[in-house]
Each structure stands twice: as structure tokens, then as C-alpha cells.
């Protein structure tokens, strides 16, 4: 680990992408296994031009090209996954094919996410999540009883939504 908590390398890393780009592979294990729960970890590996070794969302291959990363879920156990990683490490053509494969799947001839996410859809999701009155994760120990955080987030989302709408109107007006 490179950060301040559970640091195992002895010093903080100033630039994560620069640091992991020095390696052929990058472990991209989520904190928990959950359908649809994919964080920045796999994307960080792609940006650093290294092969992600992913564990977490069992449906991650709906968004990310399974030929561009090692999906631990595709193997019967960790030993089998490690055998495949060793194979990639010792067979340059197989390694380079995976390294240079497009990270996203292709839908209707274009690389994109399975749900065809747009900025507007992400804003709508965040707004719904903030406005939701239910607590889904009682085990976290985090409790926010005030509404100031909720109002601040909603206000920021509304500002972003307004800016996005104006930008979209400008594009339409210009005929783009």
C-alpha cells in the first residue's frame, strides 16, 4: 500500500499513476464484493498503462473488456489466477495483447460503458442517492444526523446540473 494507512513501502507515494506504471500488473481488489461496485482501482491501472488484476464486482466485464484485464472471478481459485498471471508474465505476445486491448467493451460499434453512462445520468444518480432517506449500511459506524451536508451536496449538484444544461443548450444551438 502506498498511502498513509497500512503503508508497506516505507514512504508516501506522491504520484500514484507514475508509481504503478513501473509495474507490469496492478492489484485492483475492491474492499468488498458487490454487484455494480467498481471503484477507481481498475481505471487507475489503465491510466498507468499496466494490466489490472481485478477482484470485486463479479459483473465488471459488462463495462470493461475482459481481454484487457485479469478478472479473478473468471478462475476457480486464486492459484489458477496466479498461474494465468505467470503465463502472461512469461509470454510477451499474450501480455502485450492484453496490455493494448481497449479497456471498454464495444456496444453499437463504439467503446462505452454497458449502461451508457452520461454526465446527466451520473448527476441524477448522485442526487437520488443524497435525497434517499434510507440507511443501507448500518454496519459502517458513520452517522450523520444533520442535514447541512445533504443540503450542501444538493446545492452543488444543482449548480452542476445547471452548468451541464447550459453547455448542452449551447451545443444544440451551435448545431453540434
Automatic annotation (TrEMBL):
Annotated signal sequence range: none
InterPro entries referenced in this protein's UniProt entry, alphabetically: Glyco_tran_10_C, Glyco_trans_10, GT10-like_C_sf
Keywords linked to the UniProt accession: Glycosyltransferase, Transferase
Coiled-coil parts of chain: none
SUPFAM superfamilies: UDP-Glycosyltransferase/glycogen phosphorylase
Domain Fucosyltransferase C-terminal, residue spans: 14-97
Family according to the record: Belongs to the glycosyltransferase 10 family.
Name of the molecule in the record: Fucosyltransferase C-terminal domain-containing protein
Organism: Helicobacter gastrocanis
